């Protein structure tokens, strides 16, 4: 079954590219035609590339990897945060800080600082041991860190792959990922460079509906990978990485669906068993009737419906005539004497 249909892509406006004067010649092979000064993207190639990217993300997550969702433009901020949170993946939807991947050691220290500030009760001035001004400064620091690093606060290591919306705007993220040999999955508009992306999806990266649709597809792939990972289809979770609450909810929903399917099958099974039992009983009853008829035929002497044997009747007549002749012979001898 296809991950997404051609109709969904058309309704979301994935086929609209940029103006003809704003294009990258390397994208020529992904362009279907030009209409009213705007390039139209070949959605047949988009469907093929979507399936390829879907399988890659699914296998990556199933084997214990994680996907970093990146999209800082206004059209992508909401969908990036929503879909990443749905599957428990890290995301960046505000501002990409230089070195977020290549200098992850320093970024990780800032994440630890963020977690420390989140433990502070800024309303309890007397019990905190800080002055009002110090608490105010710490609150501002916490808000700033939460805004820029809140999406990756639980990311303990470099991601296994990166999903990027608009590679031209997120050129820093693309450059850092390529430097660290991290696979890049991204939407390619007609003004992008396809050589920078490992798993490309030709499409519109400016329309909210198009970005939301493609981001949801990647999130669905990650969700299926999580189910395969914890269902025995991938690497088992380690003791250092226990199941998070969102993972438990996802697995519980999957198990509930399987239980519902099993109950429906179990409900249909008794009806099939009853039908089979009735059929077997009917066959057994017919066999018993045949056996009783055979026994009755053996106990009753056979009746010759064709009548007496004519040969036997003739023999009986000859014997009677001989007996009469024998009786007549002594009588004749007595008369002569």
Automatic annotation (TrEMBL):
Residues 326-337 have a biased composition (Low complexity). This is Small ribosomal subunit protein uS2. It comes from the Bacteria. It comes from Georgenia muralis. Keywords: Ribonucleoprotein, Ribosomal protein. Pfam families: Ribosomal_S2 (PF00318). GO terms for cellular component: cytosolic small ribosomal subunit. The keyword Ribosomal protein applies. One of its GO terms (molecular function) is structural constituent of ribosome. PROSITE patterns: RIBOSOMAL_S2_1. NCBIfam families: rpsB_bact (TIGR01011). Residues 290-337 are annotated as: Disordered. GO terms for biological process: translation. Belongs to the universal ribosomal protein uS2 family. The lineage of its organism: Bacteria, Bacillati, Actinomycetota, Actinomycetes, Micrococcales.
